[in-house]
Recover the amino acids of this structure.
């Protein structure tokens, strides 16, 4: 393909999953859930930025144009692989306020889940901004202020509300209406959702971005934003104060390293459960001869579902913030994967009553130490970011005058052992609420190496289905050699142990779904779920994809 312009832009999947264009030597590739965000990252790369700069630009832009999913009022996990082979992790997960306690959502002995899902008490101290600052200052070429200034222009000038954005506002309108700051931004004067095709302008958010650009992140963590938030909290029954912001810190733990066949899998460590349980599921599946079964067969879906079920049972018991909980390294050993694989009946769904226990569970522990985007550049830098404010529109609270939509990550804690959160997940004391603790997450940014060279990066949005989406993409690419664009469009399934329910996309097919039911799986059918983005470079072929289930844009520049 030849274009007359100096730069060639190849847009992937703008019309259909099948529109795939490869390149043997691209200058960069980027994929995000929103075209404006992808363009921001691409522009950064063309102006001398590297992959890490582009990722920051895209992430800050997503906070403007896709703010119901992520933003500086939330958190993120970042995995990067530098051109020199160095791998790094940045944990920008939110922290519980220092005045929080494990009974803060209990009333008369009963959990009050609504309090952890919406309003002042649901908000944890946000970490995304500090994580982006770390990525920019230590790994990028362009200062953070430039990315903030560029994103502020978009917030100031506005963008057209898509049908998807309108539907998200409409679904949450009754709750957004309760909070002045949120109502002013997302609703019309009549209290109804702003219409598809109308302009969404966010003057307050633009000012906040510009103030941070001018004064640094301390404006947010130790200055006017922290003061304004603390004042709002005091007026609205919250417990977060200026001290919580001042004492927030990111961590830079070691990544989870595992393997599948000849590939090295680099995943996010706790408080993400993604790295551990993606590895664990792959370790279980490695004990079956998958080459003898097709990647869209009844046998395949059954084995994957049973593996997910076993892993999520362990997640509920063992996982939490490693600064507070002991997390066994044995969870990701090959021996433990083999042990778990023997619990699977190839002909029948197994009733998993509880978690399993790896060897040395009380000694060999890890050191204490949702939207997804990915980007690579011509220097060999790779980066994957999964960012979130938790559920759609997070806490539903915009701190008045700031434009910042705050997270509801306190719901990701186990508010009482055995109690389900917004995603139906349960937890144990490992994930109980404690002051300064980071809640467990399913976010799974992943980089795959072959002979110490990166060949694939992937990740997803969608609560606990992030883990299952990531596993399915990895298995289909690494085991079956399916191109990532095709793998990502194949049917999805998800099992998280509790509830004992196998979620399947309708495209799995009526015959297979009926057979899964006969095998003992209680199934629930969805038209679609999840949102994955990925970039691959295998056998000198480049592919960058977004997910048509959710929209977005992926781009290769050559």
């Amino acid at each position: 393909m030849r274009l007359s312009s100096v730069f060639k832009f190849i847009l992937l999947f703008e019309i259909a999953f099948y529109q795939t264009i490869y390149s043997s030597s691209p200058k960069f590739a980027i994929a995000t859930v929103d075209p404006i965000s992808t363009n921001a990252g691409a522009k950064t790369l063309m102006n001398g930025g590297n992959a890490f700069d582009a990722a920051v630009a895209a992430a800050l832009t997503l906070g403007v144009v896709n703010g119901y999913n992520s933003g500086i009022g939330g958190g993120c996990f970042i995995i990067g692989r530098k051109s020199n082979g160095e791998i790094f992790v940045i944990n920008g997960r939110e922290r519980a306020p220092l005045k929080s306690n494990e009974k803060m959502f209990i009333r008369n002995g009963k959990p009050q889940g609504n309090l952890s899902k919406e309003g002042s008490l649901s908000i944890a101290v946000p970490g995304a901004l500090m994580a982006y600052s770390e990525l920019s200052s230590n790994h990028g070429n362009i200062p953070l202020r430039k990315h903030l200034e560029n994103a502020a222009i978009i917030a100031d000038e506005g963008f057209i509300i898509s049908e998807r954005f309108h539907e998200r506002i409409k679904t949450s309108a009754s709750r957004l209406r309760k909070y002045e700051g949120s109502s002013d931004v997302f609703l019309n004067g009549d209290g109804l959702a702003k219409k598809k095709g109308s302009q969404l302008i966010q003057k307050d958010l633009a000012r906040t971005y510009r103030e941070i650009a001018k004064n640094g992140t301390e404006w947010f963590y130790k200055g006017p934003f922290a003061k304004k938030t603390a004042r709002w909290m005091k007026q609205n029954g919250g417990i977060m104060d200026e001290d919580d912001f001042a004492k927030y810190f990111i961590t830079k733990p070691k990544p989870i390293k595992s393997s599948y066949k000849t590939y090295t899998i680099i995943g996010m460590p706790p408080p993400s459960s993604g790295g551990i349980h993606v590895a664990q599921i792959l370790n279980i599946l490695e004990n079956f001869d998958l080459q003898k079964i097709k990647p869209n067969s009844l046998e395949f879906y059954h084995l994957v579902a049973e593996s997910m079920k076993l892993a999520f049972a362990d997640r509920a018991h063992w996982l939490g913030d490693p600064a507070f909980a002991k997390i066994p390294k044995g969870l990701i050993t090959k021996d433990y994967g083999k042990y778990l694989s023997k619990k699977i009946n190839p002909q029948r769904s197994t009733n998993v009553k509880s978690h399993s226990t790896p060897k040395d569970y009380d000694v060999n522990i890890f050191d204490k130490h949702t939207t997804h985007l990915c980007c690579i550049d011509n220097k060999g830098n790779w980066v994957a970011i999964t960012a979130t404010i938790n559920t759609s529109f997070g806490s539903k609270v915009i701190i008045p005058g700031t434009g910042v939509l705050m997270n509801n990550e306190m719901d990701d804690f186990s508010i009482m052992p055995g109690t389900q959160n917004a995603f139906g997940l349960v937890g144990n004391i490992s994930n109980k609420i404690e002051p300064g603790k980071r809640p467990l997450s399913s976010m799974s940014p992943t980089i795959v190496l072959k002979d110490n060279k990166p060949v694939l990066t992937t990740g997803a949005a969608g609560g606990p289905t992030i883990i299952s989406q990531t596993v399915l993409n990895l298995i289909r690419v690494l085991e079956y050699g399916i191109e990532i664009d095709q793998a990502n469009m194949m049917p999805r399934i998800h099992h998280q142990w509790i509830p004992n329910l196998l979620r399947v996309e309708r495209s799995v097919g009526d015959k297979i779904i009926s057979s899964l039911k006969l095998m003992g799986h209680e199934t629930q059918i969805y038209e679609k779920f999840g949102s994955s983005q990925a970039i691959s470079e295998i056998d000198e072929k480049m592919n960058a994809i977004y997910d048509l289930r959710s929209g977005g844009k992926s781009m290769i520049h050559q």
Remarks:
- Residues 257-369+443-557 form a domain with the Glutamine Phosphoribosylpyrophosphate, subunit 1, domain 1 fold (CATH 3.60.20.40).
- The longest helix spans residues 298-318.
